[in-house]
Write a sequence for this structure.
């Protein structure tokens, strides 16, 4: 080692050099490698016992000292790297001018284009299956070049100036120069309002489409599957977007990002499943006619976002139009009281049997079978989200109820955490969207949320505004014809716990009253089900039933007993015992005062009851 180099290393050791190059986050013992798309910390910088600094990429990019690092970073030979290092350290007495320092990061794109010779044009055409004429057109229009002997494509700023190069290393990985350059889509030609825009993940696909179709305008290339969101703000008003999605999971996610960031209609031009992408397809023999057919038969994957004025003009109807409007009736799911798109609650005190009844309803819905006196109509897909029960207990209950079928799906909070480390909270918009997408993708028609307290973390139950964290999501599910049944707890009053605002949008509410304490057979769960908010789906009162769920200890099989509850007898017995005011009776029976009033009216109409002031009084000798 020469004295100049030794002195240079003393003045500008490797960590300081890395910082000067703008890569300070890599100057440590464990870091991401600056020379490849590092998914794990494979890069290391350390000092040996003699005080010399070294680096190494354990993925294979290289290793060495300060000069070797400059060789890799600047892609220059050793002698040039040595000279540059001496200049940067100023160890050889020379002063590194400002213009000289900038030369390590400045890009002369015109020189890159000129370096792309006819030989390179012919090689590109042969390599990717393009015509030589098209590859020559790319060069003539400054859309391809050579950077450090690597094929490269320009990165433009909003004004159209080339500010960086996107180049491909020999190992197939991609880099930007200068490092840290902002990723921008490659836009080719004009994007004209009302005219189609074709969007591609890869330049190889985009160029292939241009070559075969002859199109030279309306092309957007996102430079990778993770950059779909970059189309935001690019698509002109009224333009239809054609996405040429690659056939893999990354391509599907890319398409979703395109749709989420585009206000216009998005159509997917299908590439046959046998081929990964458009370039592979054309190299396998696809013709311009095949591409045209794919475009003409493209499926709509996202509708154009309408303006509010357009939406109002399309949606306001006169009373006569409403009368004659053909509406698709909502399908009945269970009995006459539970229909498609409903939102309902089951609530009770702890330990009464809320989950037993919810599971039994889920099993009946998923098989189209009868539950008690409630007939099923047709099997539907059900997603049961459990935020409280241990999975082994839920499994044993399902087994006992014979609830094993492909229509009934479970999302258990413990299984989710063990497999993904995630915790459910339905007040989170991202989680709401994920659940909605899961329901749509799986064809789920009924969603169970068991229970509200454990699944809605951070919600202040008594505050009406807090309910808005989930209310809009529940309304969105209704519009998608997905019914929701929420399991909740009763408060000390016996009514459903929390703000009454959550009852505004519900179709029905079922309360469960514990009857085990007065029963001779105290096994299992025993309760009465009653509707504290009558179902909007029927004019008839849904009867009150007494349920008995018993698990056979030997077989684990669960038997379900169901019979009409003698609620009127309970009402009469309370009056005979001296409980005569409406509020007192409601509290004892754990029903609403309105329900007590309905019972009283039936007694009055039958002639065995009368009302004196605030009290109900039995009429002598009539019952």
């Amino acid at each position: 080692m020469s004295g100049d180099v030794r002195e240079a290393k003393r003045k500008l050791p490797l960590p300081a050099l890395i910082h000067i190059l703008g890569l300070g986050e890599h100057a440590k013992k464990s870091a991401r490698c600056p020379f490849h798309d590092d998914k794990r910390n494979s890069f290391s910088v350390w000092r040996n016992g003699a005080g010399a600094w070294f680096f190494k990429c354990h993925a294979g990019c290289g290793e060495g000292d300060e000069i070797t690092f400059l060789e890799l970073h600047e892609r220059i030979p050793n002698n040039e790297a040595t000279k540059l290092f001496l200049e940067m350290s100023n160890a050889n007495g020379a002063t590194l001018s400002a213009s000289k320092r900038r030369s390590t990061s400045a890009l002369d794109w015109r020189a890159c284009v000129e370096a792309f010779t006819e030989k390179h044009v012919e090689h590109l055409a042969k390599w990717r299956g393009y015509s030589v004429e098209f590859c020559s057109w790319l060069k003539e229009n400054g859309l391809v070049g050579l950077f450090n002997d690597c094929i490269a494509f320009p990165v433009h700023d909003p004004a159209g100036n080339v500010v960086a190069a996107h180049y491909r290393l020999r190992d197939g990985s991609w880099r930007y120069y200068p490092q840290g350059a902002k990723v921008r889509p490659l836009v080719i030609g004009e994007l004209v309002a009302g005219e189609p825009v074709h969007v591609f993940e890869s330049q190889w696909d985009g160029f292939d489409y241009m070559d075969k179709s002859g199109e030279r305008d309306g092309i957007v290339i996102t430079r990778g599957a993770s950059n779909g969101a970059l189309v935001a703000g690019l698509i002109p008003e009224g333009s239809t977007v054609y996405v040429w999605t690659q056939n893999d999971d990354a391509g599907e996610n890319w398409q979703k990002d395109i749709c989420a960031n585009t206000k216009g209609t998005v159509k997917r031009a299908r590439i046959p499943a046998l081929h990964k992408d458009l370039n592979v397809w054309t190299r396998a023999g696809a013709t311009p006619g095949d591409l045209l057919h794919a475009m003409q038969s493209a499926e709509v994957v996202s509708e154009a976002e309408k303006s509010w004025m357009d939406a109002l003009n399309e949606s306001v109807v006169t009373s006569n139009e409403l009368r004659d409007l053909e509406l698709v009736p909502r399908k009945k799911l269970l009995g006459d009281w539970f229909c498609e798109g409903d939102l309902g609650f089951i609530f009770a005190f702890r330990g009464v049997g809320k989950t037993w009844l919810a599971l039994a309803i889920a099993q009946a819905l998923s098989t189209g079978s009868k539950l008690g006196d409630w007939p099923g109509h047709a099997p539907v897909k059900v997603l049961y989200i459990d935020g409280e029960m241990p999975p082994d207990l839920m499994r044993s209950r399902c087994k006992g109820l014979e609830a094993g079928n492909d229509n009934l799906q479970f999302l258990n909070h413990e299984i989710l955490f063990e497999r993904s480390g995630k915790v459910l909270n339905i007040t989170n918009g991202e989680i709401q969207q994920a659940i909605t997408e899961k329901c749509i993708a799986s064809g789920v028609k009924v969603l169970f949320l068991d229970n509200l307290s454990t699944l809605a973390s951070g919600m202040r139950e008594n505050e009406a505004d807090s309910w808005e964290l989930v209310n809009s999501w529940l309304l969105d599910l209704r519009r998608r014809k997905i019914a929701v049944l929420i399991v909740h707890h009763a408060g000390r009053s016996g009514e459903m716990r929390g703000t009454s605002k959550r009852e505004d949008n519900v179709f029905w509410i079922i309360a469960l009253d514990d009857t085990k304490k007065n029963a001779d057979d105290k096994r299992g769960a025993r309760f009465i089900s009653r509707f504290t908010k009558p179902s909007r789906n029927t004019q008839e009162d849904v009867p009150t039933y007494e349920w008995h769920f018993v698990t056979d200890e030997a077989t684990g099989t669960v038997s379900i007993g169901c019979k009409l509850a003698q609620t009127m007898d309970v009402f009469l017995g309370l009056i005979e015992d001296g409980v005569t005011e409406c509020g007192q009776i409601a509290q004892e029976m754990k029903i609403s005062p309105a329900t007590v009033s309905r019972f009283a009216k039936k007694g009055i109409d039958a002639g065995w009851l009368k009302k004196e002031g605030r009290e109900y009084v039995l009429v002598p000798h009539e019952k």
Remarks:
- The chain has 23 helices and 26 strands.
- The CA atoms of residues 229 and 260 lie 8 Å apart.
- Residues 332-565 form a domain with the Rossmann fold fold (CATH 3.40.50.300).
- Residues 91-105 have pLDDT under 50 and may be disordered.
